[in-house]
Amino acid sequence: MLKKDISPEFIQSLYEDNDKALQFIADIKWEKGFTCRKCGHTNFCQGKTVASRRCTRCKKEESATAHTIFHNCKFPISKAFYIVYTVCFEKRKISANNLSNELELNPMTCWKFRKKIQECAEKRQNTPDDEIDLMDVLMGE
Ligand SMILES: [Zn+2]
Questions:
Q1: Range of the domain at 114
Q2: Does residue 91 register a pLDDT over 70?
């Protein structure tokens, strides 16, 4: 998956498919290969959850979302991607209330997650008009 392939349409399509969203995160996260954070081993097998990886030496498992902006996300990743989409691609401002209605999530949950993405995006922009690098935002933590 190359940066230029990430279109708004693609990000939006992840909203319909939670597994695909997780797989996408795993693809970017381990783009340069897997290295176990515990023992440094580079061989892995499929973990217990979708798109997770398990070290074949120490058996430590890492989820696709660990150490990304989706870490500790308490709602489906697909919905989180929709929020990412609205922040990074949509120019119109959607209120947290509208988002929460649309996604059937708690308004505070929406507001907090969106704030996190916005902060992450702003940190990487020199001016508000700069293009947001989606990869940087996703791997933001
Ligand atoms: Zn290991």
A1: 7-29+70-141
A2: no
CA dist 128 and 125 (Å) reads: 6
- How many domains is the chain partitioned into structurally? 1
96 inside domain: yes
Whole-number Å distance, alpha carbon 83 to ligand 1 midpoint, is 33
Alpha-carbon distance values, 78 to 64, 85, 98, 100 (Å): 13, 11, 17, 14
Assigned domain for 50 exists: no
Question: How does pLDDT run across 41-55, given as a tens digit for each residue?
Answer: 999 999 999 999 999
Flag whether 41 is in a domain: no
CA 88 to centroid of ligand 1, rounded, Å: 35
CA–centroid distance, 81 to ligand 1, in Å, is 29
